[in-house]
Specification:
Strand content: 15-25%
Pfam families: Cyclase (PF04199)
Helix content: 10-25%
Number of helices: 9
Protein name: Cyclase family protein
Low-confidence stretches: none
Organism: Paractinoplanes pyxinae
InterPro entries: KFase/CYL, KFase_sf
CATH topology of the largest domain: Glucose Oxidase, domain 1
Order of helices and strands: HHEEHEEHEEEEHEHEHEHEHEEE
Mean pLDDT: 97
Distance between the termini: 40 Å
Structural class: alpha/beta
């Protein structure tokens, strides 16, 4: 890989890994097409003990965001409280209640990147003009609500322990980790792949610092072909940006995103909390499970919060 030629590398990978037209000109699901009814049945059959894990970080003011590109942590405000109920709210027979509201960027914490989130030279998923897809009214074609009923099936966790910032996880690393974890870690068509780098655990131990946007371990740009070939439905990590940071080229910003989303049609999850699940998987030696991870169906959104649930 020529570090000095990101433009050429991105263009070549986009051509090799393109799924444009694979599911027709009107497709809005991308790689979620791989997650079919049979794959959901396979995932459901993995529930043995009934133990469940939430893979979401908290959505609160103590979150990871630092204001980059106007991304802030959630602001939670009460509209009605117990004090209001004590003083009377106008309901009959002593009824009282509490109400609240939250303001936040949709990618403030654990979330999915939708297919309208990233473009390549003004082109969106499946070869559409970006301006025809996302307008001031939101994503009018591949809004995150189109994925809401589909993200449930077989999940697989690959646990890399505690990788240093800037470590690029290669195809060789992925295949070696699968081999080391055994048969339950096989990765294939329609799977939802989770990759733990240890970055979130470190942020919780040492403080958020530059977790949001700073150096981190992550997927190497060179894994684009593997991600395309594996035919996974989606991939999520415990990092802010999924791919290794700093990126592997001298002058590039999130080049793997630029291939994965608009060309492969791959759903990317970020800031997932995989620590407790990883500990359980290590304890029983089983690395696959039923995973349901529907995004909040905010109409026209290009990304959305999610509370993923893994059940073993």
């Amino acid at each position: 890989m020529d570090r000095t030629n990101p433009e050429g590398a991105i263009a070549a990978a986009a051509k090799r890994c393109s799924n444009w037209g694979r599911w027709g000109a009107d497709d809005v699901l991308g790689t979620l097409n791989f997650l079919d009814e049979a794959k959901r049945r396979e995932g459901a059959a993995l529930v043995r003990r009934g133990v469940s894990f939430s893979l979401a970080q908290s959505f609160d003011a103590d979150g990871p965001q630092n204001g980059w590109r106007r991304r802030t942590n959630p602001v939670h405000t009460m509209l009605d409280t117990g004090l209001d109920a004590e003083r009377g709210q106008g309901f009959p027979h002593g009824l009282g209640g509490a109400d609240d509201v939250v303001f936040m960027p949709l990618q403030a914490s654990t979330q999915w990147d939708g297919l309208g989130h990233i473009f390549d030279h003004g082109v969106a998923w499946n070869g559409r003009r970006a301006g025809d897809v996302v307008t001031s009214e939101g994503d009018r074609v591949t809004g995150i609500e189109t994925a809401a009923a589909h993200v449930a099936g077989r999940g697989v966790l690959l646990d890399f322990g505690d990788l240093p910032d800037g470590y690029a996880i290669t195809t060789g690393d992925l295949e070696a980790r699968i081999a080391a974890q055994g048969a339950s870690a096989r990765v294939g068509r329609g799977d939802l792949l989770l990759v733990r780098t240890g970055r979130l655990a470190r942020a919780r131990r040492d403080g958020w610092g530059d977790y949001a946007g700073g150096p981190a371990p992550g997927l190497s740009f060179t894994t684009a072909d593997w991600l395309h070939r594996a035919e996974i439905a989606g991939i999520a990590t415990d990092t802010w940006g999924f791919e290794v940071r700093p990126n592997e080229f001298d002058d590039a910003f999130q080049p793997l995103h630029q291939v994965c989303i608009p060309h492969i049609g791959l759903f990317l999850g970020e800031m997932w909390d995989l620590d407790a699940l990883a500990a359980d998987c290590a304890a029983d030696g089983v690395w696959d499970f039923f995973l349901t991870a529907a995004p909040l169906p905010v109409t026209g959104a290009v990304g959305a919060p999610v509370n993923p649930i893994a059940v073993k």
